Amino acid sequence: MRSGDHYLASLDDGRAVFLDGERVGDVTKHPAFAEPIRRVAHTWDLARAPEAQSATTYVDPATGRRHSTMWLVPRSAEDLGARRRAHRLWAEPSYGLMGRTPDHVACVLSAFAGWRQLFDRGGTRFGDNVVRFYERARDEDLYVAYGIVPLQIDRSQPAHRQPAPFLYPGVAAERDGGIVVRGAQGITTSAVLADWLFISYITPLVPGDEDYALSFVTPVNAPGLRVYPRRPYAQGTTSVFDYPLSSRFDEVDATIVFDDVFVPWEQVFVYRSVDLVNAQFHESPSHTLANFQSLVRFTVKLEFMAGLALKLLEVHAASSKPEAQASLGGDIAALCATFDALVQAAERNPLILQGVARPHPQYVYAGMSLQRRLIVDMLRAIRELAGGAFQQLPSSEASFSSPETRADLEKFMRGATASARERVKLLKLVWDFVGTEFGGRQLQYEMFYSAAQPIVNTRMFRSYDWQRAKATVDRCLGEY
User: Fold this and answer.
1) What span, in angstroms and rounded, lies between the C-alpha atoms of 202 and 449?
2) Does 262 lie in the same domain as 339?
3) Domain count along the chain
4) pTM score > 0.90 for this model?
5) pLDDT at 327 over 90
6) Is 65 among the domain residues?
7) Which residues, at least 6 apart from 260, have a Cβ–Cβ distance to it below 8 Å?
8) Domain carrying residue 79
């Protein structure tokens, strides 16, 4: 398992990241990216600590080597439990706010390696490529991000009918040693923070899209590859006190442009096959395994939200009121407990197909369907608990340092159980979670990171055991 220092050094690799029209030098030193990168490095150090390795690593029975558990191809419910513990370790340092930590795409690549037969259908060399890169990523403990959602240009038309060729990533040329990729991919979260990118499509392709029907990996610093982040939320924050989340946990979404990027054949998983691109996530265990990580991470986030709600009541001496406890129990605790139960059910009741354990799709997709509604309900509940407190906050931490303002703040901003500074600190934290631009992105992310609600609901429909339910009704009808 790599160290935090190794990770930091690896990012100074000449990658072409452009912010506000200018190329960024070392991303680890730029104020827009330095803090979230440092948080990832810190988590690697936590994971490799000797006391943590029993939970964060596993021993490969074939080689006797120890690897990070995020690369474990699960064969049982126990393996899924080991993966859940590793996912929690990656989620807890950011309180579940960073969704695309290194363990996410590690799920995808581990699932691909465990289901190489899908890629073999395009030729065994592609299955070999999948396994070979998985082993490299596992051995080097790489941070791989992915871009699998095309840009929103003309959503009424497939890739090959867009207003111009190669608006989506596609094969512009083929060479003896590999392919040349041209186009752009959107919503590549954490690309600035990652070592490598996995590029493909999770939105279905159609016949005629063969030039775009690709799956491949490429280093972020590949010649011709350009990274365009959205505005990082760390920019413009006055202090960690005023913006405790925005300043530290923005994983930064980005658009990736491929200006004739050369991709060697050994980095290609699927080539010009619409069927295989469409099948790779759902026929393999990839989709359920990656979303299992997302649900574990969201469980950590729910726990954080529950803690915020309780602290809001405690600071104003309201937590002992029966109506407050009823609100916390019904609006907060019940939702958190229900979601945690879905994660445990997915883990403990796996589908084991051809030797690979999948978190049970029924519970994974139930969690995904509920997730987008839970986040809205939880945020609303927290806003209601805070009431008008956010409108009474001082403009910045500096107000506690000024001799002209300090006395007023200490007198009038205090809580029933906390000093003025402690109360304001808590309220600033809550506001950064529910009300700032960072908070708005968190809401949008949880609602749409996987798919639109009808798509998620359709997956839930396909995963539920309707025949068992119908058989119960038929048994009742047959009794009289």
Assistant:
1) 12
2) no
3) 2
4) yes
5) no
6) yes
7) 172, 173, 180, 181, 182, 224
8) 4-279
Whether 159 and 150 have beta carbons less than 8 Å apart is answered as yes
CB-based contact 30:24 (threshold 8 Å): yes
Q: Does pLDDT of 102 surpass 80?
A: yes
Residue type, 243: Y
Q: Which of 279, 299, 320 is the last residue of a domain?
A: 279
**Can you say how many angstroms the Cα of residue 17 is from the centroid of all Cα atoms in its chain?**
21
Count how many residues are written for the chain. 480
CB-based burial, 175-188: b 16+ in 10 Å, e otherwise: eeebbbbbbbbbbb
CA atoms of 91 and 227, how far apart (whole Å)? 25
User: Is 478 within a domain?
Assistant: no
Same structural domain, 110 and 230: yes
- In this structure, the answer to whether residues 227 and 297 fall within a common structural domain is no
| Dihedral pair phi/psi, residue 257, rounded to 5° | -110, 130
Last residue of a domain, one of 279, 295, 313: 279
* pLDDT band at residue 400 using 50, 70 and 90 as cut-offs: very high
Residues 6+ apart with CB under 8 A from 312: 382, 385, 386, 389, 426, 430
Q: Are residues 258 and 295 in the same domain?
A: no
Burial of 478 (0-12, 13-18, 19+ CB in 10 A): exposed
- Tell me which H or E stretch contains 358: strand 356-358
